[in-house]
């Protein structure tokens, strides 16, 4: 908080490289994204960048699909013109082909966050009361906490926060049976299975591939399920066949989280799960936790992550626990009032964070106006009329071409060739049919363009 306030009041320019999205939301006024060898500038803070990025991607995707439809339509028109097998129609087709070749093709935007919308659901449902902590105390050289009480219900996503050294990780280890408490009671509810994760103890075999690591841990899982789960954690295609030893620490963390969420555990205990993860990986983890139907208790200093995932916050302060029923924004809003009620004063760090905001802005109220039922009805009628007209024109073209072909056969007959009257009559009729056919070609091309608009 001190650094944030210092930078907010700093008059010079600052360039920041950081994965702390909450910090970026408070401080930055511009985001430079480097992606696929290109730098793109977005005005505003991180939240504004994320919103603009998504709008930009959706816009580019619409442009790509519109262009693909146009290319396909033009190719169909070119093919049709060539099928007429007339000199003028072939020239028109060649002209369109040249124009098509000059189009600057839009590349399909890559969705870097492989969005699988996967729901991670425990095999066993726990009872409604998942954890009860009563009178918990622990000291080492000094007292960490004393006589703390709290409960966690099924489905809650609870963040345990507090300053360094207050004993947050110690509480997780006591719950998980790794460290003994000095006093107090830890009681798990019925059918509760704990899954524990920290960055130091990931228990991965460095010689296995990502796919084998999951498959060997859960031999009854089908290959499709394994691939889907790995994809939810951003491992796709041949990535699943990389060896554990060849991936980064952050990627190993994601594999461990994937294994954990596939386990029979219905109560996940996570110690700093976003450590060493880049922003994209954090967003993947946020999505996984939000879709997880079990219960989660975690320690984290990542305020943005807490804001996105926590339904409740436990603040370990002055050797006791303060309870906030909400996310990090709610915690900031209620922090001063809660501390005054419990301690009779506010803590020093409260003065630094009380003015924090995530920088999130409400979405624009200008929703796209939808066509009225009458307008849609008119448009649909106009479209049907155009399609029918195009079909009739194609039928007329086919009939005219057949008529001209029949006249050509008549002209080749000896009895006609020797009869100047019949010869002139058929030739004149043929010229009329040719002229009418050219008009039909032009009409068909115009209707095709209208259909494309």
Description:
- The structure is a single chain.
- With 453 residues, the protein is an alpha/beta fold.
- The protein folds into 3 domains: 2-101, Rossmann fold; 129-353, P-loop containing nucleotide triphosphate hydrolases (Rossmann fold); 388-452.
- It has helices spanning 2-9, 21-27, 46-84, 87-101, 168-175, 210-217, 223-232, 249-262, 279-291, 303-309, 328-343, 348-353, 373-411, 414-417, 420-452; strands spanning 30-35, 38-43, 129-139, 143-153, 157-161, 183-188, 194-198, 267-271, 295-299, 312-317, 320-324.
- The strands form 3 sheets. Strands 7-8-9-5-10-11 form a 6-stranded mixed beta sheet, with helices on both faces. A 3-stranded antiparallel beta sheet has the order 4-3-6, covered by helices on one side. It has a two-stranded antiparallel sheet with strand order 1-2.
- Helix 6 crosses helix 7.
- The protein starts with a helix and ends with a helix.
Summarize the structure.
The protein has 453 residues and is of the alpha/beta class. The protein has helices spanning 2-9, 21-27, 46-84, 87-101, 168-175, 210-217, 223-232, 249-262, 279-291, 303-309, 328-343, 348-353, 373-411, 414-417, 420-452; strands at 30-35, 38-43, 129-139, 143-153, 157-161, 183-188, 194-198, 267-271, 295-299, 312-317, 320-324.
């Amino acid at each position: 908080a001190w650094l944030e306030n210092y930078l907010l009041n700093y008059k010079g320019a600052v360039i920041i490289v950081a994965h702390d999205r909450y910090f970026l939301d408070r401080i930055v006024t511009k985001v430079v994204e480097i992606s696929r060898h290109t730098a793109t500038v977005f005005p505003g803070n991180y939240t504004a960048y994320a919103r603009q990025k998504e709008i930009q991607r959706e816009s580019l995707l619409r442009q790509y699909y519109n262009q693909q439809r146009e290319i396909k339509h033009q190719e169909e028109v070119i093919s049709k013109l060539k099928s007429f097998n007339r000199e003028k129609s072939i020239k028109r087709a060649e002209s369109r082909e040249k124009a098509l070749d000059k189009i600057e093709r839009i590349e399909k935007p890559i969705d870097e966050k492989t969005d699988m919308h996967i729901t991670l659901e425990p095999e066993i449902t726990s009872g409604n009361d998942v954890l009860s902590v009563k009178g918990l105390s622990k000291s080492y050289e000094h007292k960490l906490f004393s006589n703390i009480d709290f409960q966690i219900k099924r489905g809650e996503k609870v963040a345990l926060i507090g300053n360094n050294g207050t004993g947050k990780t110690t509480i997780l280890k006591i719950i998980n049976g790794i460290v003994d408490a000095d006093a107090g009671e830890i009681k798990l509810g019925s059918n509760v299975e704990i899954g524990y994760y920290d960055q130091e103890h990931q228990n991965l075999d460095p010689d296995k591939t990502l796919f084998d690591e999951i498959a060997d841990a859960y031999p009854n899982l089908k290959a499709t399920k394994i691939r889907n789960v790995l994809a939810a954690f951003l491992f796709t295609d041949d990535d699943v066949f990389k060896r554990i030893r060849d991936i980064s620490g952050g990627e190993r963390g994601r594999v461990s989280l994937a294994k954990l969420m596939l386990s029979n555990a219905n109560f996940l205990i996570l110690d700093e799960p976003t450590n060493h993860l880049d922003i994209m990986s954090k967003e993947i983890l946020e999505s996984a936790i939000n879709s997880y139907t079990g219960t989660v208790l975690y320690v984290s200093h990542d305020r943005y992550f807490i804001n996105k995932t926590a339904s409740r916050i436990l603040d370990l302060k002055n050797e006791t626990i303060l309870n906030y029923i909400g996310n990090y924004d709610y915690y900031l809003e209620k922090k001063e009032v809660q501390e005054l009620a419990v301690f009779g004063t506010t803590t020093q760090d409260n003065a630094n964070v009380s003015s924090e905001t995530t920088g999130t802005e409400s979405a624009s109220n200008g929703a796209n106006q939808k066509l009225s039922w009458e307008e849609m009805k008119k448009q649909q009628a106009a479209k049907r009329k155009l399609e029918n007209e195009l079909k009739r024109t194609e039928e007329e073209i086919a009939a005219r071409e057949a008529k001209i072909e029949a006249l050509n056969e008549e002209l080749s007959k000896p009895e006609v060739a020797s009869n100047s009257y019949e010869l002139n009559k058929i030739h004149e009729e043929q010229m009329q049919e040719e002229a009418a056919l050219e008009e039909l070609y032009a009409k068909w091309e115009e209707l095709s363009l209208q259909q494309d608009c």
